[in-house]
Amino acid sequence: MATAAIVIIGNEILSGKFVDENSGFLIRRLRELGCDLGRVVVIPDVPNVIAAEVAACSAQFDHVFTTGGVGPTHDDLTMPAIAQAFGVSLYRHPTLEGILRRRMGAACNDAALRMAEIPDGAELWWDGEVRYPLIVMKNVAIFPGVPALLRLKFEAVAHRYAGTPVRTERLWTERTEPEIADLLTEAAGQWPTVAIGSYPRFELDPPKVLITLEGRDEDALEACVEFVSAGISG
Amino acid sequence: MATAAIVIIGNEILSGKFVDENSGFLIRRLRELGCDLGRVVVIPDVPNVIAAEVAACSAQFDHVFTTGGVGPTHDDLTMPAIAQAFGVSLYRHPTLEGILRRRMGAACNDAALRMAEIPDGAELWWDGEVRYPLIVMKNVAIFPGVPALLRLKFEAVAHRYAGTPVRTERLWTERTEPEIADLLTEAAGQWPTVAIGSYPRFELDPPKVLITLEGRDEDALEACVEFVSAGISG
User: Fold this and answer.
1) Which of B75, B109, B198 is nearest residue A73 as measured by Cβ atoms?
2) Judging by DSSP bridges, how do beta strands A167-173 and A134-137 pair with one another?
3) Chain B residues with CB inside 8 Å of A54's CB?
4) Which CA distances in Å does B172 have to A70, A76, B183, B195, B211?
5) Hey, is the C-beta of B52 within 8 angstroms of any chain A C-beta?
6) Cα A13 → chain centroid
7) Could you count the other beta carbons within 10 Å of the beta carbon of residue A3?
8) Can you say how many angstroms the Cα of residue A108 is from the centroid of all Cα atoms in its chain?
């Protein structure tokens, strides 16, 4: 199955000025699509930090999604940093320049044209007949930080990331985690394709433990659920 | 000023089964305390991944906060991974073992006693007269993933992370980002101690740009705010 990482770029998230809505949205959509998310990271608007993180994630995951830092102001440093990550230069793409000039007219100054500068080798994805394409450098899709824009642009390309969704089963028990720990360890060993999670909910009265069992192998999942279910009620 | 990183450990966040509440809480509290957050990362319950991330963050930041993976079940792997990060072994701490045995009585089995196993060299912090201490390995404070517990344990030790809070000023303008980009670049160059952010709010009618100016140098901040304020209204 395809794996993915999300790189949230922005001082405004780390400083608490804005609450990050984008990772929550992407986490949910990638789950629905069946793309396995392995990492979410929030980093500041610092070119070397962005370049290092993007290079590492690009090498380690099938897909990388960046958000933020793609506007016309001094704190928008994602494009040059991604170029740096891949050791290429930025250039002003004529198609993007044309779009900006037509849209903005006389207001299209040098700052605005920074938005037409992309890493050498990047692709333009026009899925969904958007007015402005998504910029994708190798396996790194570069999204804006504005949540409404990100959602719009993500949905246009979501079909490219579709795989087989994971099935999740949930079991609840009033037994404590120490009581069921050996049972879960045994189940995890016996069905390695099933991911088992155990989450105590002390705030419930009486306290309960939520056990989640997840996987794409239906037979293994069903056998594992049956085993754990019998074990916790036994 | 002290810097910090947050490491959220848990498949349940990456898979969207639970929404991460802990990073939002810690981001807000660190900001209030005046501790500069440089990184938030969400990683799976995989020992090598946890160990690598904790080692990197510990070397790069003054303080590291981990959340999650500290219970008694098979998916609780934070303690051994942090031991691995620092090249030490785990051992069962007699004080912690005593607390667990007294609290749990006959229910205190081997699984429960995993919660008494900590990295060699870790400290126990008893601030706030909590029933169970916070485990801290070098500059890495190890918090539970359950949000209510994390908040309780963080507040008990928050005083240790207090510094000088950053002051934030906000300016709004109906001018567009391309129009004000040069002004902001000039201000950022002239007052390097002031962090300037620019955030378009296209959803407002008419659209506006929020400019944030932040710093600990009051004089520089005031001069910079005055400069930008005059520039956007000029």
Assistant:
1) B198
2) unpaired
3) none
4) 20, 18, 14, 16, 6
5) no
6) 16
7) 15
8) 32
pTM: 0.96
CB contact under 8 A, A195 and B14: no
Q: One-letter amino acid identity for A209?
A: V
State whether residue B11 sits within 8 Å of chain A by CB: yes
- For chain B positions 118-177, those within 8 Å of chain A (CB to CB) are 146, 148-149, 166, 168, 176-177
State yes or no: pLDDT of A234 exceeds 80: no
Under CATH, to which class is A3-161 assigned? Answer: alpha beta
How many residues make up chain B in this entry? 234
**How distant is the Cα of A192 from the closest Cα of chain B, in angstroms?**
13
Q: Where are the domains of chain A?
A: 3-161, 167-233
Each residue of A158-212: pLDDT tens digit? 999 999 999 999 999 999 999 999 999 999 999 999 999 999 998 899 999 999 9
Residue type, B36: D
CATH class of the domain comprising B167-233: alpha beta
Each residue's pLDDT tens digit, B73-122: 999 999 999 999 999 999 999 999 999 999 999 999 999 999 999 999 99
Q: Which residues 58-87 of chain A have a CB within 8 Å of chain B?
A: 71-75
- Residue B229 CA, distance from chain mean position: 32
